Amino acid sequence: EAGVAQSPRYKIIEKRQSVAFWCNPISGHATLYWYQQILGQGPKLLIQFQNNGVVDDSQLPKDRFSAERLKGVDSTLKIQPAKLEDSAVYLCASSLDRGGNTIYFGEGSWLTVV
Amino acid sequence: AQKVTQAQTEISVVEKEDVTLDCVYETRDTTYYLFWYKQPPSGELVFLIRRNSFDEQNEISGRYSWNFQKSTSSFNFTITASQVVDSAVYFCALSYFGAGNMLTFGGGTRLMVKP
């Protein structure tokens, strides 16, 4: 079974530029998550989708971050404009549903803002 | 509020030693789930185990074992006869039914196994 796919794996941009990350969850998984992991810390949830609807985006900095999952499968996370403190690994994850199911993570997209 | 504490930020052992990674959690919910993930240098979070709050049985999987104790709110992870390939950062995490499966992670424990 294919895992969670993410791209690009690595991205270096200058501050104030924009960047987009793509995620394809495990087939059949209704719930999709974007986590941000700053170096040396545990991952922090940015946004959670159930099919194509947003369940929780309370920790998403909405002035610069946006995410969508238009057809309930793939998802895109965008940052515009980027700040130095956005340097982190962006982890996409998916689960069958929301009721305590195991969450499976992708390899992550490593962002460096210079 | 949910909270997960991994007091050990870094552990170094010599190959073949046993090592225990500690995890203490806080939650007011009676239905919750505990997880352990492994993060090798490649960055991917690899799922190791999931436990629900009603199942306090310890579990063993090869060299890995987990000790879940509700009385002390702990979910500790032991690696027996450690190997160099076990070197990674290990995260303990908690979710509860009312949170829609949102995971709260601890700060992680970096394990270094030296040959």
Descriptive overview:
- The complex is a heterodimer of chains A (114) and B (115).
- Chain A is mainly β.
- In chain A, strands 2, 4, 5, 6, 9, 10 and 11 form a seven-stranded mixed sheet that branches. In chain A, strands 1-3-8-7 form a four-stranded antiparallel sheet, with no helix packed on it.
- In chain A, strand 7 and strand 8 form a beta hairpin.
- Chain A is globular, with a radius of gyration of 13 Å.
- The model of chain A has no long low-confidence stretch (mean pLDDT 93).
- With 115 residues, chain B is mainly beta.
- In chain B, strands 2, 5, 6, 10, 11 and 12 form a six-stranded mixed sheet that branches. Chain B has a four-stranded antiparallel sheet with strand order 3-9-8-7, with no helix packed on it.
- Helices cover 0% and strands 53% of the residues of chain B.
- Classes of the chains: A mainly beta (114), B mainly beta (115).
- Chains A and B meet through strand 4, strand 5, strand 9 and strand 10 of A and strand 5, strand 6 and strand 10 of B.
Q: Count of DSSP helices of chain B?
A: 0
Roughly how much helix do the residues of chain A carry, as a percent range?
Answer: under 10%
Q: Give the strand content of chain B.
A: over 45%
What overall form of chain A do the CA principal axes indicate? globular
Count every beta strand of chain B, where a strand is a DSSP E run of 2 or more residues: 12
Low-confidence stretches of chain B: none
Question: SSE order of chain B, as H and E?
Answer: EEEEEEEEEEEE
Gyration radius of chain B, to the nearest Å? 14 Å
